[in-house]
């Protein structure tokens, strides 16, 4: 019988919910405990020796997804001088730059050894995956070194347009509706975003959602003339129908 413990900062505990469910559904182990202690969330399980390799593979892929899809964005938010970027474009820019070249991030993250019996998720990233941190810091440094280019919103829009063009599509078609006051985004008839107003924060969050979902096509409908539609067209260019 083998045991394994995975520790993560409590603020990220819900990011391990998917891993916990996959471990349960594998029917190859028993969850011994999951608890919070001193701002750390711990997940412990036990399994037969012959099953640990399969479970380590599940852990590797799930933690890799956490690093790339969650922590990379968190890292960049805390290392890029976002105060120099127009507020309305900050969420979209962080989402776009975080999703840039995730294929290489994935290769690096899966190349690590996840077999240790006690794995601390964040320290593991910094000490066992220095290549990822170096890549992310390079992105932050390039942004900060050239931050003067973002003095005007047009510069940020041009950069967002470039990043969007180099994203791999995640969804086929998104439908964006501007009514008299609010905004709705539908992904295959499923409501993915809703806002009762159209203030700058709402527009910022809407653009971040569009970039995060990375559609192949965007359909826009509006009950009134709307200047934000032109901004969407500039960022997503040929994707807008």
Mean pLDDT: 90
The neighbouring-strand order within the major sheet is 2-3-1-4
What is the overall shape?
Answer: globular
Which percent band covers the strand fraction? 15-25%
What's the gyration radius in Å? 21 Å
Helix content bin: 40-55%
User: How far do the termini sit from each other?
Assistant: 58 Å
Can you count the helices? 9
Based on helices, strands and strand pairing, what is the structural class?
alpha/beta
Largest sheet: 4 strands, mixed
What is the ordering of alpha helices and beta strands? Answer: EHEEHHHEHHHEEEHEH
Contiguous low-pLDDT stretches (5 residues minimum) are none
- Structure summary, number of beta strands: 8
Structural overview:
The chain is 48% helix and 23% strand. The strands form 2 sheets. The protein has a 4-stranded mixed sheet. It has a 4-stranded mixed sheet with strand order 7-6-5-8, with helices on one face. The protein is built from 9 helices and 8 strands. The chain is globular, with a radius of gyration of 21 Å. The protein is α/β, with parallel strands linked by helices and 241 residues long. Strand 5 (171-178) and strand 6 (183-187) form a beta hairpin. Helix 1 packs antiparallel against helix 2 (52-79) and helix 7 crosses helix 9 (227-236).
């Amino acid at each position: 019988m083998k045991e394994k413990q995975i520790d993560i900062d409590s603020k990220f505990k819900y990011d391990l919910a998917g891993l916990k469910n996959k471990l349960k559904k594998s029917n190859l182990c028993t969850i011994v405990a999951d608890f919070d202690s001193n701002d750390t969330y711990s997940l412990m399980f036990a399994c037969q020796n012959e099953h640990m390799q399969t479970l380590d593979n599940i852990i590797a892929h799930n933690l890799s997804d956490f690093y790339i899809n969650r922590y990379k964005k968190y890292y960049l938010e805390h290392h890029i001088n976002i105060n120099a970027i127009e507020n309305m474009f900050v969420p979209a820019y962080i989402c776009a730059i975080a999703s840039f070249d995730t294929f290489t991030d994935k290769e690096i993250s899966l190349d690590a050894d996840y077999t240790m019996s006690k794995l601390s998720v964040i320290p593991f990233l910094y000490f066992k995956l220095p290549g990822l941190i170096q890549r992310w810091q390079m992105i932050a440094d390039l942004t900060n070194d050239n931050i003067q280019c973002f003095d005007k919103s047009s510069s940020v829009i041009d950069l967002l347009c470039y990043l969007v063009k180099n994203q791999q599509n995640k969804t086929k078609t998104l439908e964006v509706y501007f009514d008299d006051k609010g905004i709705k985004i539908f992904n295959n008839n499923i409501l993915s975003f809703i806002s009762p107003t159209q203030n700058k924060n709402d527009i910022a969050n809407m653009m971040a959602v569009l970039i995060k979902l990375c559609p192949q096509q965007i359909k826009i409908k509006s009950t009134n003339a709307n200047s934000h539609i032109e901004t969407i067209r500039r960022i997503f260019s040929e994707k807008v129908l």
